Each structure stands twice: as structure tokens, then as C-alpha cells.
Fold:
Amino acid sequence: RFTTRASPQPLTNADELIDSVQTFIFDCDGVIWKGDKLIDGVPETLDLLRSKGKRLVFVTNNSTKSRKQYGKKFETLGLNVNEEEIFASSFAVAAYLKSINFPKDKKVYVIGEEGILKELELAGYQYLGGPEDGGKKIDLKPGFLMEHDENVGAVVVGFDRNFNYYKIQYGTLCIRENPGCLFIATNRDAVTHLTDAQEWAGGGSMVGAIRGSTQREPLVVGKPSTFMMDYLANEFGILKSQICMVGDRLDTDILFGQNGGCKTLLVLSGVTTLSVLQSPNNSIQPDFYTNKISDFLSLKAT
Ligand code: PLP
Ligand code: CA
Structure:
């Protein structure tokens, strides 16, 4: 599919954009918060949109927390957001397995953190792996053979700060040796901003290791794949043309919105700078851009 897009416009009339859609999908990190810090003016902006009757949905590629844990985070930050409005890539894994009727007698091997485990548990799936898996040293004496569970029908890979060689080998064995075993990735973000001082290796690095050893491509459930978009459009009965996707990242958020046929707004409160947006090397152009979502409060028609 080849489309030509006009170069992005700075948002000058927020009311016009707000009136043109029914739903706003907000990316979280870089839009709502930065790490654990709320971005200026967010509560007032969400209040304004709710008072205008807009549906608000929050989508994050960060799989380390469950929907419930994100609910707590919103609450701690003083934001009035319901768990059902939150779509994290951890939740997307369980939703995807449900959507394909993944058998409950099969198991899921998880390379990732607590969020994925909690969502699988809630959905009633059997799993193994998780953060503490394979902490001990592998003893490669002659003849050593790693056993694996032949009942694993899906390997899920997300961001994992305890990633190790055992996990790579275990996941690889399942994918290569269990017939029909799925390879699912929560997201493929190259980098994340764990601290504001530096970029850190993102979930894409763990996914890349398993791609390397299996020579298989994962099925991605997070942004920019359309799975979550289709899921929530279906869940809430909303038309994608009635959605504005708001994010700070071109290759996940803005692409996610464009893949879904939504309007797109890039905010400069996260990872993307104006010079990256305007660089001739950038092929992903949002419809609009602005500094931060609280610009909705001040950008009125003149
Ligand atoms: N993955 C991890 C591990 C992260 O720490 C972050 C951001 O903090 C992300 C993904 C991206 O999250 P979002 O989609 O909310 O920008
Ligand atoms: Ca983001």
C-alpha cells in the first residue's frame, strides 16, 4: 500500500480536531506520563475531553504491568481512569490467545515480567517461565540435554530485565520442536526510556534474540500491529475513522493509528523531536503535531 501524506501540520485548532472524532486513544509513556512522573496538564485535558463526551482509551506497549497494575498507577497519579479503558500489551497477549481459542490444556512459556503472568492467570491459561526462570547456571557437561515441556503451545516474549541464555534456549526448543507452537511478541520497541538520562534496550531486543535462534517471525500484539485496534474497535463498537490516535512515537503510535485508518496526533512530550519529525529520512507523517496534550486547553480557533 502506497499513500502520500501531506507534511504534518502543527495543531492550531484543537476544538476542530476534538469535534471531528468520538474516541481518543492515548499512548501512555511520553503522553500521559514520563516514567513515574505525570506530564503537565494531563488531568485537566482528560477532564475536558470527558466533559465533551469523548471516549478515552489508553494503550501502552509496556508489558511489565497488568491492566490492574496500570489502574493503580493511574490512580496514584491522580487520574480517573477505569481498568477497562486500559489496553497494555500484556493484556493484548491474553486477549489474542482468547481470540484464537488457544486451548486451555496447552501451556504458554513466558519470557517477560509480571504483567504478562497476571493477565494469563486472569484469562485462565497455564503458563511457565516468567522473571525468575532459569536463574541458575546451565552446566554444559558432555551429553547435557535441556528438557522442555512438549505441551507448550505458545512462547510469549516481552520486555524482561532478567533475560538470560536459559530462557533463549528454552523458548527456542519449544518453538522449534513443538509442532504448531506460536511465537508471540508483546512489542518490538527498539529502546525504552527507563531513566531520562539514557535510552535502554527495549522489548525488541529480547524478541530479536528469539528471532535469531528460531529464524521465525513473531506475531506482534502491541503497537503498531492492528490487533489491539481491531480488538478495542470491536469491544466498544467504534468506527476507526472516528478515532484520533495520540502518541509520542512515529514507528509505534503514529503507524498504529495509520494502520487502523485513524486520525493521528504526534506529541513532542516524549521521544520524538521536531527535527526528527521534519527530517527527510522520516517516512511516517502524523496528521498533526503539538507539544503536549494540554495544548488542547489553549489551542482554540481564532
Ligand atoms: N516497553 C517498556 C519496557 C517501557 O518501559 C516503555 C516505556 O516506558 C514502553 C515499552 C513504551 O510504552 P508506551 O507504549 O506507553 O510508550
Ligand atoms: Ca510512548
Notes: DSSP finds ten helices and 16 strands in the chain.
